[in-house]
Amino acid sequence: LDIKVANTGGNATSGKQYGIMFEDINHSGDGGIYAELIRNRAFQGSAVFPSTIEPWTSIGDAQLSLQNLSDPLSSALPTSLNVAASSGKVGISNPGYWGIEVKVQQYNGSFWVKGNYNGSFTASLYDYLSNETVGSVEVPSNASASEWQEHSFTLTPEKAAGVNNTFQITFDASATDGSLDFNLISLFPPTYNNRPNGMRPDLMEALKGLNPSFLRFPGGNNLEGNDPPYYLKWNETIGPLKDRPGYPGTWSYENTNGLGLVEYLHWCDDLGMEPVLAVWAGFYLDDPVIPEDELQPYIDDALNELDFIMGDQNTNYGALRASLGYPDPWTINYIEVGNEDNLGGGGSSYESYRFQAFKYAINEKYPDILVMASTADFDFAETEDAGEDYHQYTRSDYFVSQFNFFDNFITGFKTMIGEYAAVQPNIPEGGGTDWNAARWAFPMWIGTVSEAVFLIGAERNADKMFGAAYAPLFQNLDSYEWAPDLISYSANTSADVLSTSYHMIQLMSAHRISTTLPIDSPSFDPVYYVAGHSNSSDSYILKSAIYNSTETVSMSVTFDGVSEGAEGTLTVLTAPDPFSYNDVGSDVVKNTTISLTAGSDGVFEFDLDDLSISVLEVKA
Ligand code: AHR
User: Which residues form the Alpha-L-arabinofuranosidase C-terminal domain (predicted)?
Assistant: First the structure.
């Protein structure tokens, strides 16, 4: 295949081509990137998921019961755990999110107690396989029945002890009046950038490896809620943890809301990502829609959220932000109105009044924000001068057939691919996903290559595309609702599973095209490609993916202005077969990087196999 790349005449890119999308699904927040180790730390519950003692168990003769005291820890956390015993050493034990990994490092913990107790608590990490306490600390207490008291501690185990550990708090029951009440029992390992209430370093490092330019949050379906009155309310995710009530997420578990709005913004800060903030837009997943004449409070709420993030301290919500310890505002340049709000019963109301009501109000106050519709209805977005969010979960053949999908979209970096993944094997009749059929457990190589073809198609349309994010991002292998996912983990796995698609995105994202460059008479199938120039490395780039080739393809590539002797680097990703995938402990993706020198007339020659993904980068 001869590819001749011109050196002028292309389109600038958004600069944000690769980002990430996050919602709490698969225990990706609680039990995932949010570093809290204690599961069910505050007995949060709702009509959907009533409060439970699970997974807490008692130590000694203690009787455990949930109580809704007349003077709870806070109105947000009305339920607490009563631990009753008349004598002896008693307490409570928690196994964490299916295991607590113990390392020789400092753990920061705290818990609230109500009840008379003049003694000390022992906070410890306990290895239940070897029946051994692997780290403990005494926490002096003069707790009182008249008020809730917070107890804080640090704990540094003497030795590492795997993941089969529980966290325990014990006390001398004879020094109480017969019981104590506990709430908000928290334990954090070191976090990324040492942020309090922060993130797991290993998962943050994995994300950093993707060089992501934006974070779309906080959903996904999880933004929307299933039925009234539950949807993800931003103002219930800010401030002290004792003031966050939690939320019955749409993915079958109660969310703690410990990972909240400020934590998302810190996440953006820490990885240099542009926030793409989704606001609730009056549509629940089970179809109730807020009528037009009742929508205003929700629009006001979105504006209040923006005020909280961006307002100076003279505004009500800017002042609230400052009072919580964040005097400096953040900037929001991108907002998405809802999530897939064009679906189901939401569809007609979205395009007839809901989207417009939010967009007009937001742009009236913030004219520079690009407001995105949570639909890829191209005509609608164009009419409304809006952005759009295209989602695609499909099969490999279908993704490849969409190589040209964005060719006629609107210019202006307005189209985000907010979610995409190849999720099922091809079927003879072709077509997209069968939502009643099983999906792949992990991304498969053939799917990964098809995603690369689709993304290359998006990159060719540089002037239209904002960027793309795979979804879902994370999967806790001990409890999840959706597969395949980009990154998987478990307390019981020594290393996180970086999927085949992770490796593909890492390669595509690491080689950023600043301006696409035209290719002389391009023809695609089985080789799909895009060329461009990178300003940061001052180099020419050719990205390609090969799908369904019956033979090895001999490539012959020239870049206008690059002559004989020029040096290039070719990186090629391959895998043993189309259905190779990365599982716990395995990595099937082979990364081959070689140096190439341009021959006569500046030609770079190399061979590429079927189902390979490659990047050729040549210094300008
Ligand atoms: O990524 C999983 C789900 O797929 C998202 O929550 C939703 O937006 C989409 O339908």
Answer: 418-612
User: How high is the pLDDT of residue 11?
Assistant: 97
d(CA 80, CA 149): 13
Coil, helix or strand at residue 128 = coil
Residue 492 has pLDDT above 90, yes or no: no
Ligand 1 atom with the smallest distance to the CA of 250 is: 6
C-alpha span between 301 and 297 (Å, rounded): 6
Q: How far is CA 325 from the centre of its chain?
A: 25
Phi/psi zone of residue 487: left (φ > 0), alpha (ψ -120 to 50 degrees), beta?
A: beta
Mean pLDDT confidence for 12-41: 98
Across 215-242, average pLDDT: 97
As a whole number of angstroms, the distance between CA 404 and CA 453 comes to 10
- Each residue of 400-425: pLDDT tens digit? 999 999 999 989 999 999 999 999 99
What pLDDT shows up at residue 377?
87
Note whether 234 and 305 are within 8 A (CB): yes
Total domains in the chain come to 3
Rounded to the nearest 10 degrees, the angle between the axes of helix 261-271 and helix 296-310 is 50
Ligand 1 midpoint to CA 221 (Å): 6
Question: What confidence tier does 285 reach under pLDDT thresholds 50, 70, 90?
Answer: very high
ipTM of the prediction: 0.99
Q: Are residues 348 and 497 in the same domain?
A: yes
Please state the rounded mean pLDDT for residues 459-464.
97
**Distance in angstroms between the alpha carbons of the first and the last residue of the chain:** 22
Distance 303 CA to ligand 1 centre (A): 25
- Distance, CA of 306 to CA of 57 (rounded, Å): 42
Ligand 1 neighbour 482 (Cβ under 6 A): yes
Is 209 part of a structural domain of the chain?
yes
Tokens of 569: 């680097």
**Contacts of 222 by beta carbon, 8 Å cutoff, 6+ apart:** 23, 24, 25, 232, 249, 250, 251, 255
What is the C-alpha separation between 386 and 436, in angstroms, rounded? Answer: 33
3-state secondary structure of 371: strand
Output the domain CATH number for residue 547: 2.60.40.1180
| E strands in 315-412 | 334-337, 370-373, 387-395
Which residues, other chains included, contact 490 with Cβ-Cβ below 8 Å and sequence gap of 6+? 98, 99, 476, 477, 478, 584
Distance 9 CA to ligand 1 centre (A): 37
Identify whether the C-beta of residue 433 lies closer than 8 Å to the C-beta of residue 488: no
Cα four-point dihedral sign 150, 151, 154, 160: negative
pLDDT range class, residue 376, cuts 50, 70, 90: confident
User: 499: which 2 tokens?
Assistant: 């999927």
Q: Amino acid identity, residue 30? A: D
Write down which residue in 188, 207, 232 finishes a domain: 188
- What does the alpha-carbon distance between residue 385 and residue 382 come to, in Å, rounded to a whole number? 5
Nearest atom in ligand 1 to 471's CA: 1
Question: Which structural domain range is residue 551 located in?
Answer: 2-13+513-619
Question: Which CATH number does the domain housing residue 62 bear?
Answer: 2.60.120.260
